[in-house]
Queue: 2 jobs
Job 1
Amino acid sequence: MSILAGRGFRHLYVDGGVTIQGFLRAGGINRLTITKVPVLIGDGIPLFGNLTHDVRLKHIKTKVYRRGLVQTVYRVLPGE
């Protein structure tokens, strides 16, 4: 993550289960937005997969959209 900071990047949009897992393991995410769509998918790549430790979150806000989409924003708390 320090490579990205060294190149001047401050805010990134990270998407995709495996990519998110890598950033979480490396401590490279400080704000997490989870969008839930009202559809149950039977198969796929888990968003968070197996993490080496618990990731504590503080709820910032939740927005519910007319068509049932729910978007929740969390701050990732520092590890203990």
Job 2
Amino acid sequence: MMSTITAPAATAGARIHVPVWAFLAMALGLFASYVVLQENGLLVNSWMAVHEFFHDGRHALGFPCH
């Protein structure tokens, strides 16, 4: 005899609780990606040292930076 397993019906408006730290981690990750891959002094003019630090890595990954 075969038994059938059914998934519970999804209820409209069901809430998924996402912790605040998950949003903060996502924002930090996006900011870090921007700094590593695209920052050319637009955000802060004195960050040219950051640009030079990641310069060769950007070109190795195929990201233009000039």
